[in-house]
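Budget justification note: compute hours in this period were largely spent on complex prediction jobs such as the one shown. Inputs:
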Amino acid sequence: MEFKPKITENRWNPGLEEKIRKTWNEEKIYVFNKNTKKKVFTIDTPPPYPSGRPWHIGAAAHYSQIDMIARTARMMGFEVFFPIGIDRNGLPVENYTEKKYNISIHETSREKFINLCVTALDDLEAEMIQIMKVMGLSGDFDNYYRTDSKEYRTLTQTTFIKLWDKGLIYEDTRPNNYCIKCGTTIADAEIEYEELPTELIYIKFKMKETGKDIIIATTRPELLCSCQAIIYNPKDERYKDLEGKHAIVPIFSKEVPILAHPYAKQEFGSGIVMICSYGDYSDVRMFRELKLKEIIAITPEGKMGKNAGNYAGLSIKDARNKIIQDLEKAGLIQKKENIMHRTPLCYRSKTPIEIIPMKEYYLKQIDFIPELLKIAKNMKFYPERHRQILIDWINSLTIDWPVSRRRYYGTEIPIWYCKNCKKACLPEPEKYYQPWKDNPPFKTCPHCKSEKGFEGETRTFDTWMDSSISPLFISKYGKDDDFFKKTFPAGIRPQAKDIIRTWLHYTILRCYQLTKKQAFEGAWIMGYGVDEEGKRMSKSKGNVVDPLPILEKYGGDIFRFWNASEAGLGSDFRYSNDKIESSAKFLTKLWNISRFISMFPEEKKAELTETDKWILSELNELIKKCIEGYESFDFFIPATALREFTWNLFASHYLEMAKSRAYGQGFDEEEQKAAWYTLHLVLKTLLKLFAPISPFITDYVWKELYGKESIHLESLSKPEWGFGLEKSTGKITEFNTEIWKTKKDKGLSLKTEIEVKIPKELKQFEKDLINMHNIRI
RNA sequence: GGGUCCAUAGUCUAUCGGUAGGACAUUGCCCUUACAAGGCAGGGAGCGCGGUUCAACUCCGCGUGGACCCACCA
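Corresponding output:
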């Protein structure tokens, strides 16, 4: 009998992937069947944000792993709903557009600016979609959604109107984080801190009762006009006699109380702090605690307001310089020190934020903390240890969520204001409104019945208002009840670690407020992609690795196997070209094993030899291990286990032991068929176990050898070969290694006949071992 | 300042109390009929100090170092 491999090429060719992808599309094997009788598993896919080139290799890896979740769930018997979306709202695209066209948002018409944003987004989006397809994502590309579409924004507005009706939205004057450059309030989560040099100024205040000097140290002398109290530490012996006295603020000559408060640190500056509205968040806390009346010092334009007297109209910096000059002239400055100061910055523009009281819309979240904690404790976390990040965040919330933004590229807040009574009028839900340019949808004011007309709201929502309803949008909330019931709550929310406190938190909050339900059964949290030095990749550091050239060179399967075998779930994973190379080698190995096995016919049953039972015992252990990994959506476990088994046991030992038998050299037909049976059985199982990780090569080999239907319609293998012979593995590999070593040491070819005693524990494998090593007994 | 997580060869990772296994890289030998994008072999590791135990990489404490999060000094 002559043996010819069915598979002829001797290496895996990533170029085949495109053709395989086409057949998937034609066969429609991933299409969601909403009339299924299977249990539905919804993936609340994170819509990636096209914020500029290149797309992060870590992000690409993230999406390839989300696809592994989808494929795993399918092979576990679920009907998988795997939507694909693109997040397009918000500041990053505005910044990208400003840079790309060298324009300023404030000097461009709103209409024109929005159109430029759309053009930029379309370009970036096309590349992302392409990358997702190349990686072999089995999501619904035909119906992919955009968060800036009319439909999506309609839902954002509709849910806002619903929450408004529930009384969960309110407008309030409140100290806000405000970025003067971006011209918008920003959420706490958008602030970053940096050590920056600044001057600490020691200013002389006068004590009203005694006329003595009191020295306070400040980095913000321009805020003197809004000083409403000065404090010292109650333990500070130096200032004991200040209790209950009053101080006179220099220049503005006003009287403020002197109070003892533990917040003042004795060792910093002079030990006395002035409390102004608002230099930082401790000022805010102090104003609330001491019930002081706020004085607005700085306007949203970043200039001094009318309360600043002579300094009104000056920029913050100019006002600071001028007031220092004036104080110096009057001899009111004791000294100046250069210090490093941890300064809060806007994370996009890197401008120091100001705390300015403004009117903004808020969504209540503080009232929901107990329910949110309950959900955080009830939800599954993959991996479990990331649960604490969410719990800590919920526990640290102190204010409600400011949801209004003074930007252009976002979902508009659907409100008109009556020109007569100034009250907010909300339109009917289920329609998309652009109040800054649309005609008002009502003639008379529902509050005062006036017909004087309306002023449209010009602000937009925080982008998280859109993002936080993704599970509702994909499940057609409010549009298709039947579909909604089947697909909501979602089975899993895959996402990155750094947006637990935004996306995950806000989604849980909003879905709970609207549906009283937990948005998803579980959250799957992936780590960061870091560069070869272990540093987190970011555009500003310039260490972002572009996934596109890597995918073009190696294809989706190698890329996917690489990132699955690179780090455990939730851990950061390091980009390394060497590792990608070695992943490519593994696929070639798997390919060649398949090629070898493809020489032999597949037997439907056989009388197994002990060697066959041994490898099946090991296969059984492998299946158990893989199932353990797949059930926890931790692909590192099956990826490494498969590599280990395939390369170091199956190929190195079993294949060599069974080779002569498979060729029929020195064995009878029954034994030969047992080898054929086992080789194919192991290969089929390996392909199925490997299919969620590398879907292309597995499907290709499957169809070449085992049938027309795709491997992706198969179920995950179950452990059913518990022969218990895995105990022999150590002895077998040791024995083989010893003979290889002996032959090598003696400079003999592996084919040379050798005389060795086979240990009695290996008696049962004797015949295969004798033929494998050419042993003379 | 508070918290969470982590610490095994140059790098990544396994072993949930009993000879530290594997991968990448590195070195040497070999074209052995699936694979030189391969095979075989070699060198190389438990952060420090205590404690629990017959036995600690594994459990506990302290320290050191790192990652991340929160708060934040006027």
